[in-house]
Amino acid sequence: MSVPVISLLALIFVIVISCIFPLNIGAMSLGLSLLVGHYLGGVKIAEIIKGYPTNIFLMLAGTTYLFALAQVNGTLEKIVKYAIKGVRGNVAILPIIFFFLAFALSSMGPGQITIAALMAPMAMLLAEEVGISPLLMAIVVGNGGQAGAMSPIAPAGVITAGLTSKMGLSGVSGVLWLNQLLGHFIVSVLAYIIYGGLKLWKAKDTGERQVLANLEIEPFTRNQWITFIAILVFVIGALFFKMDVGLGGFLIGTILALFKIADEGKAIKQMPWGTILFVCGVTVLIELMKNIGGMDLFAGIIASVSTPFTLTLVTGFLAALISAYASTIGVILPAFIPMAPMLLQKVGAPSTELIPLLSTIVVCGFLTDLSPLSTTGAIFYANAGEKTNKQKLFRDMLIWGLSMSVVGAVISWLAFTVLRLP
């Protein structure tokens, strides 16, 4: 058996393990890189280590450090509560407001997982209290957070920017971010229609409006105001002044910690170190596969069942189906994005199809994450209220998540290949 085949089998093994066992496959990928690359392939250790994505590590660590500080001192939670009060009791627009609030907060840097953890408890409780379908609320709020995941300063956007820069692409982050919003907005509108959102406009007010309008919230503390201003400085610096998001996050976060604006010890413990190891470890294995021919082999298999016109459809379906059981950030992005140029070459598609293909991989990878088997979906499921039929909610979320592998692929194909959006 050739080394490229073994490397592809190693990747498949990692994906399968991530679906079955709660193990950090970043660590496993690093170990397999040594076994497959060095001991079987004869690749020097120094060459394997070169595949470690130092830039991605710094960007992820810096951004999550800053927003962990903002989370532990209550700044993010208070922003959410003021937004809830701002709807002034209009139940029908509550899911809509939550979608855009989750999108805005996720885009500011924390990413979709943090925003899900932050908003799910309040969103699911409110859904139960005011008569909104818990499934609808989970889908809309979860997709709102994921719509902001491709922001240039959010973890997934940071990872994708690092991967595309290695491909010689620059300035694509904004397009991918917009396409991510488009895809998730479309499916959220479908969910709003299917799961009773329109009926909320006709529902009689039974006191929920007054409850929401009179929601009592403690004013921002001095430290929370300072943290909020610091986040704005970070966002403006990253988006408009080309500040490095990783180092910038460390700089601003360190200033907050130095003046005891937030508890740095608690913040560091809340940083997603497992996710960072996950992403960086899998990236090392992917880089090794690229160097020894494994990714070329994988691309050839997908290309064999695709044409230039159906490539986004087939790739989107595979990315979504795998993502329903594996990590989008840890597996789909580092595995599929570097493979995109190879896929185009193998099916004979022009280079102008690269952005539609990348957009499809990103959108489809995230759309299935409202399955209760994925982290985002699991967070919303775990926060369902006592009155909610959890068995039914689990089944409905699982059906929704798996259906997105087909729906997401079709929507992405129509939007990015057929209609050439944006």
Summarize the amount of helix as a percent range: over 70%
Q: Main beta sheet: strand number and arrangement?
A: none
SS-based class: mainly alpha
Domain count: the total is 1
Taken as a percent bin, the fraction of beta residues is under 5%
On the 0 to 100 scale, the average pLDDT is: 86
Unreliable sequence segments: none
Order of helices and strands: HHHHHHHHHHHHHHHHHHHHHH
Radius of gyration: 22 Å
Head-to-tail CA distance between termini: 44 Å
- SS field, number of helical segments: 22
Please state the overall shape, judged from the principal axes of the Cα atoms: globular
Number of strands: 0
Protein name: Na+/H+ antiporter NhaD
Transmembrane segments: 7-40, 52-70, 91-109, 115-141, 175-195, 226-259, 271-289, 309-337, 397-416
Domain Dicarboxylate carrier MatC N-terminal: 1-149
Keywords: Membrane, Transmembrane, Transmembrane helix
Can you summarize this structure?
This protein is mainly alpha-helical and 422 residues long. The chain has helices at residues 3-20, 25-40, 45-49, 54-72, 75-86, 94-107, 112-130, 134-147, 155-166, 173-194, 208-213, 222-240, 245-258, 264-270, 273-292, 294-303, 311-323, 328-336, 340-347, 354-367, 375-382, 390-418. The N and C termini lie far apart (44 Å).
Helix-strand layout with pairing:
Blueprint: H1 3-20, H2 25-40, H3 45-49, H4 54-72, H5 75-86, H6 94-107, H7 112-130, H8 134-147, H9 155-166, H10 173-194, H11 208-213, H12 222-240, H13 245-258, H14 264-270, H15 273-292, H16 294-303, H17 311-323, H18 328-336, H19 340-347, H20 354-367, H21 375-382, H22 390-418
